[in-house]
Amino acid sequence: MSRCVEEPLEKMRATGASCVLRGSGLLPRVNLNKECPFWEDDSKCAIRYCSVKPCTDVPEGIKGAPIDRSEKKQKEKSHMVPGHCDGENDLGYLNTTLSKESKVGFKRWAAHDDAQLNFCKIDDESSEDSEYVDLLLNPERYTGYAGPSAHRIWRTIYQENCFKPSRAIGRYTDFSSIGANDFLKEMCLEKRTFYRAISGLHTSINIHLSANYLLSDQNGFEVSKDGQWGPNVQEFQARFDPELTGGEGPLRLKNLYFVYLLELRALAKAAPYLESLEYYTGNESEDNDVSKAVKDLLTVVKSFPEHFDESSMFSGGQQAAKLKEEFRQHFWNVSRIMDCVGCDKCRLWGKLQVTGLGTALKILFSGNLDQPGNQNLDLPAARHAKFQLSRIEIVALINAFGRLSSSIMALENFRQSITKR
């Protein structure tokens, strides 16, 4: 399995596509000021490593709508025509503006349509509370955010939003520990997929925190004023060693590979759609670099063997449609729980990766957007079904897949460190 994973990663680095995975040219915009919708948030992290530094220098092309270059050229060309007169256009002028009421109505309709397809709650980019964030300046790592507040996040996700077996299972202090027994076998494929996707995401985040842990000296004081981060083998073993986790650790790591293949499949399926987009920042040189990097990445993704088959899921009439809607609603709730994370930096990365996974689920399960037997999104069918991805979703999808890739690389480093002991 590791060989299958490392090969495309090596190709990505060789082609330069890793710049996209690191967030270059794809700045996320996120609202870190939303109130928790489920409980009163009284546990805001006061540790300085929890804070997020927003971008102050954002390219105009990212802040505004992309300019239609063909329309711009057409206007320039029309002014070069002999005898051209602005008055001629005035005679046939058509007022295409919308009233304030109409704009509000269209926005409400669009939100309703999006909600029928989306698997997660997407931040409103037009909100005054939304800020652009440079992920390179705000890396995902251990910040010291722990204790009851952090545990409540995952406990709520597992206990109240993951599907449960039909028979009573009792009250688990950590619902993420059901993987070692037979409970998962009692659930259908779709419900097992949901649990394994959540568990794989949880595993990936835990590996990130173990690989970028806040190190300290023997007296418990930080090594430097700004802190020093590095791999913590003991922390990794506490989360994944079979003997220290009751046999759960290897299953959690197995779910990491599962969610990696799920998102890999989503990228491959959406490749024609993603390749048809214009990646616009306002800087033509950077636009070309980002566009080339995305296409190089998708070329590698499409060459990777298929390991996740979504066609076997949600088939079977009305009951299957009902189950898919439950699936979507459960994940929608998970995305809302991310607004309850008390650490801003943890909230940033949690929202980004959950949105990325939700986007992958949207690609895989949003209706019959592809023809039977076709392994990619059929563009005409997608347009007919009004399928589209927002800039936030595309940024999240690519960066979330990058985090899973980094987790697998870090996992190999931990294996080597443990073997050498």
Automatic annotation (TrEMBL):
Compartment(s) of residence: Endoplasmic reticulum membrane
Q: Which family does it belong to?
A: Belongs to the EROs family.
Question: What S-S linkages are listed for this chain?
Answer: 45-50, 85-120, 343-346
**Active-site residues, as the UniProt record annotates them:** 343, 346
Name the cofactor(s): FAD
Q: Which GO terms describe its molecular function?
A: FAD binding; protein-disulfide reductase activity; thiol oxidase activity
The record's Gene Ontology cellular component field reads:
endoplasmic reticulum membrane
| Listed Pfam families | ERO1
Q: How does it sit in the membrane?
A: Peripheral membrane protein
Query: How does this polypeptide assemble, per the annotation?
Result: May function both as a monomer and a homodimer.
Major location category of this protein: endoplasmic reticulum
Q: Which amino acid positions bind FAD, per UniProt?
A: 141, 143, 154, 199, 202, 239
Q: Which PANTHER family match?
A: ERO1-LIKE PROTEIN, ERO1-RELATED
Keywords, sorted A to Z: Disulfide bond, Electron transport, Endoplasmic reticulum, FAD, Flavoprotein, Glycoprotein, Membrane, Oxidoreductase, Redox-active center, Signal, Transport
Could you tell me what this protein is called?
A: Putative ero1-like protein
Q: Which GO terms describe its biological process?
A: protein folding in endoplasmic reticulum
Read off the InterPro entries from this record: Ero1, ERO1-like_sf
